[in-house]
Amino acid sequence: MRWPGARAISPAPPRCSGSAGRRCTTSSSNMTCKPDRRWLAGLAAGCLAAAALVGPLSAAPADDAIAEALAALDRGDGVAAEVAGKRALEEGASRSQVAALIGAGEFLQGDLRDARQWLAGAGFDAATRKRGLHALARLELSEDNLPAAAEIFDRMIAMGEVDGEVWVDIGRMRYRAGQHRLALEAANEAVRIDPGEPRALEFYAQLTRDVQGLRAALSVFERALANAPEDGGLLAQYAATLGDAGEHARSLAAARELVELGGETPYAFYIQAILAARAGEDDLARRIWWRTDKTFDRTAAGLAVSGILEFRGGNYALAVAHFDALRRLQPFNESALLMLSRVLVANGEANVAASLLEPLVERSDASPYVLTLAARAHEQLGERGKAGVYLDRAAAPLPLAPSPHPAFLPRDDYGNLRDPSHPVMQLRILLADGERAAAERAVADFLERFPGSLDLQMLAGDVRALAGDEVAALERYRAAAELRSNWPVVQRMAAILIRQDRMAQARRMLAEHILQNPRDQEAIVMLARLHRAAGNPSRATLLLRQAAQFAGGERDPALLAELAEMELALGNQAEALVAASTAHDLSRSNRRVAQVLARAIELGGGKPASVQALSLKAQAR
């Protein structure tokens, strides 16, 4: 597929780049007699004959330097590549022979300005043209100039100068541009052309993780590592995916192997720190995190880890700074907003938290966690009446599936919408304003222009769901799932199946998602509720126990109260009492939690006075 606006420029005819060494020149300025022309002709013929004999037997010094530069680039040593390339230039190589080598070396060092001087507008000889164009495309990508990069890649495709590594960069560019389907095509092409290229296999595995899930990605990483067992990039991604899949022992082993492979590898320490934090070993996690040498401090995962560790350590102001930076980095991430709101309340900034949570609590299907957090914020502000309303809603029976609702609108510190001209934001604004007809017209136009966008497919489904056309909505969500089968997509599809009373299909879809993503707490809880509704308390209880073991689950009063109810249904009174007591300690004002605890105490033969006190509390509002 051609890139819009790109041009295929025919390559210049190949240039001869022979290397017979430096030219020898003679000065005749001090000569007083004119040399015999026949003697000069004979001398020239002799020189040519000597060059013809010597040339094949020994390479010129410039050739050795060029070979050194190429080898340095292959091992990722930009400094050595630059030095060798400039030495080749001094030894007689032309600029077209070394521009790609020096420019690529400068780029590897992060010297973008110097790299552009060598790469932009420079002519590359046939031997280095592919390397030079690829380096220039990467330079444009690093400066977020996607149209220029697309044009360069288009030229490379037209010239036939494309291998697996180039297709990987094309795919990553398409992914950044929101062309998710085209990114998948690029990943498939990279693996087809160069099935043993580690970067092609890595990119293919990453997209497999998006489309099929963690377990499927693990098998791709394992096949890739069988071909390239000492590739640090593959091993790092494999270790991270193992950790996300809950395979902590194997993830730790892979991280340690990465350290052995590459010495003090920041990514290996990053993975070990996350594993320690998940296990609750905060001091250990903090010590390991320091060894990453700030490599990941400004990434989304790094900000989340730092924020969690500071929050657990009671350093609420620092936690606020980390989560606020995360929210700015990922403005559409509701989880980031909830984490920021939680630490704001802990830091005494309830007014800011209440403002952030307001769009979420206005939704009819707001989760008990969101409602309870908002209640705490308003309690801190002295608004007990408003807090009570939210607590009552949090205590209400939970729906099996969320209702269609307008999408979350991220705002800046001044309340202004972020990037309102973006197609996704335009659709979100129309949905939030109830302009469904305008949203339908807009989504049709956007899908025609950007048919491979995951985000637009999702919003197209939201538009149809809000219009009451759940059949069409399900089709859009399925199209989105072909590009990334993540929880927001699966949740929407499952919700439609539930509303259509297709419970068995919904349970099967959720089970398949959990099989691939075993740490997806929300999916596990939703499946547990479906099993409970189907009269399968044993299965529901097992799932709720699993969800309560994950980070945050042990401090979620709604989840623990639900678990206590299921334990009581199975006659597990001791387990029910533990879960209900913990839930009550976390949320003493929650009516539903008080009801569950009263019942657990009563069935366990507890003191009647305690039961009566809890019952009165539950009936207080």
UniProtKB/TrEMBL annotation:
Keywords, ordered alphabetically: Repeat, TPR repeat
Listed Pfam families: TPR_16
TPR repeat residue intervals: 164-197
Disordered as annotated region, ranges: 1-28
Keyword Transferase found: no
Gene3D superfamilies: Tetratricopeptide repeat domain
SUPFAM superfamilies: TPR-like (SSF48452)
SMART domains referenced in this protein's UniProt entry, alphabetically: TPR
Protein name: Tetratricopeptide repeat protein
UniProt organism field: Alteraurantiacibacter aquimixticola
Lineage: Bacteria, Pseudomonadati, Pseudomonadota, Alphaproteobacteria, Sphingomonadales
